[in-house]
């Protein structure tokens, strides 16, 4: 008799455990489904925001890269003559470009941190380049201001290539197809690379010419007092 009562109690306890487990399982399942629904909604939002950001920001990046091209090809002349009003001095004919990504009104947090940093850092890189070029102007020799224009052209050719690479990375991040250049079409990035090569060669040739000219203060130079 007592054994039967004990078995009944044991089965009663097992039934309670099963009911409790079922209840907990139902709570967990409900929580999981809610989390999954919210996660899917957030994933969809991020994908949508990323696509919008990429389309908008890529357009700004491409425009900035094109502005860099204009500066890279500005040698201070106009129609083959010095561009100053009196026609005596070489002066910039293209304004320095600006880039303000924080004014775009997009959710930058949907991007990977490294890509977001590269885009937002472009404003600082541009400002730093402007300061370096301005310093060259202070010490460049008129009327050509050669050091200034070399630094300006090379710096913006290099920056334009960096901007183009970031734009490409952004397109790849969201799966946007890269525009295919037609045969014979002008290649902006190749033109910028050629400009950097040309300036490097011109600077190297100038340095070699300077090295070949004896300094008036060298030991081998004739002392004007003795002549």
What features would you describe in this structure?
The chain is built from four helices and two strands; from the N terminus they run αββααα. The chain has 227 residues and is mainly α. It has a two-stranded antiparallel sheet. α2 (113-139) runs antiparallel to α3 (146-174). It is elongated and about 105 Å long. The protein starts with a helix and ends in a 15-residue tail after the last helix. Mean pLDDT is 85; it is low at 223-227.
Q: Can you give the mean pLDDT? A: 85
What's the total number of strands? Answer: 2
Largest sheet: 2 strands, antiparallel
The N- to C-terminal Cα distance equals: 139 Å
SS content category: mainly alpha
The H/E string reads HEEHHH
Number of helices: 4
Rg for CA atoms: 34 Å
Beta-strand content estimate: under 5%
Major beta sheet, strand line-up = 1-2
Helix content: 55-70%
Given as residue ranges, the uncertain stretches (5+ residues, pLDDT < 50) are 223-227
Global morphology: elongated
């Amino acid at each position: 008799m007592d054994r039967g009562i004990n078995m009944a109690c044991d089965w009663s306890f097992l039934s309670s455990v099963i009911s409790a487990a079922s209840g907990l399982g139902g709570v967990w399942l409900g929580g999981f489904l809610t989390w999954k629904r919210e996660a899917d909604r957030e994933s969809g939002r991020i994908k949508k925001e990323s696509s919008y950001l990429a389309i908008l920001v890529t357009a700004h990046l491409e425009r900035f890269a094109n502005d860099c091209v204009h500066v890279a090809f500005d040698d201070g002349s106009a129609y083959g003559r010095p561009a100053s009003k009196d026609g005596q001095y070489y002066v910039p004919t293209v304004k320095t470009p600006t880039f303000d990504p924080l004014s775009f009104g997009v959710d930058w947090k949907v991007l990977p941190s490294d890509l977001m940093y590269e885009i937002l850092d472009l404003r600082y890189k541009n400002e730093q380049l402007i300061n370096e070029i301005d310093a060259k102007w202070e010490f460049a020799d008129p009327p050509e201001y050669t050091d200034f224009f070399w630094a300006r052209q090379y710096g913006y050719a290099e920056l334009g290539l960096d901007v183009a690479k970031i734009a490409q990375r952004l397109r790849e991040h969201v799966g946007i197809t890269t525009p295919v250049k037609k045969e014979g079409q002008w290649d902006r990035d190749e033109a910028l690379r050629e400009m950097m090569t040309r300036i490097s060669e011109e600077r190297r040739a100038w340095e070699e010419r300077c090295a070949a000219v004896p300094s008036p203060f060298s030991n081998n130079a004739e002392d004007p007092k003795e002549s």
